[in-house]
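Researcher: Re-running this chain for the archive, since the previous output was lost when a drive failed. Same request as before.
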Amino acid sequence: MSKIILGILVSGRGSNLQSILDAIHAERLNAKIGVVISDNPEANALKRIAGFDIPGVCIERKNFTAKQDFEKAIADELNIHHVELVVLAGFMRILSPYFIQRCFGKIMNIHPSLLPAFPGLDAQQQALQYGAKVSGCTVHFIDQGIDTGPIILQEAVPVLEEDTVETLAERILHVEHILYPRAIGLYCDGRLCTENRRVRILQEVEGKGDDENETGLD
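Model: Regenerated C-alpha cells:
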C-alpha cells in the first residue's frame, strides 16, 4: 500500500509532530510527511524536522490582507506537496469555512478534552474549574464548528485532586502522543468511514484496492 502524504500545520513546540515522526520512523504509521507549515517563524516544531528530508514552510498571517488569502496560500502549498491528509498539531488558528470546504473530510485535529465537553481554548482549565473527575483527549475531523467535528478516537485521563492546569495538561499530552499517530494510522490504512457524524472503524478495507485510493485535497 502506498504511503499517505501528510501535511502538518503547527504554531509552537511541535510535540505532537514529534510523536508522528517517531511513529513513521518506527514503521507504525504507513505515511510520509510531505510538508510542515507554520504560521510562526519561531516555532520549535520547524526545528524538529531539521536533518529530515521534509520541507518546512512559514506562512505568516501578517503578510496577507485577508484571512482567505492566508488560507489559500496554505492550501496551495499543501497541494504543491500532494498532501492527502491535513494534520493540525498545535496550529493556533481557527480555520475558516473556505479552507475547511476546500479540504473537507481530510483535516484531523486533536483536542485536550473528551469532546463534546470543554471545547475551545483552555480545555484543561475548564475541566478543573468545572470539577471534572475525568478528562482526556479527542482526535476528530474538522468541521465548521469549534471542536464539533466527527470523533475518531478518545482516551480518558483521570483528574487528580492535586492537579494544576500544568500537571493535567502534561498527563493528557502523554496520551495525545499515543492516540494521534494511532488515529492517523487508521486513516492511512483506509479504516475510517464517516456516516453522518459518526466515524466507524473498519476491521479491514471494504472493497477498495491499493490503486483505488483517492488522493489529493481538491
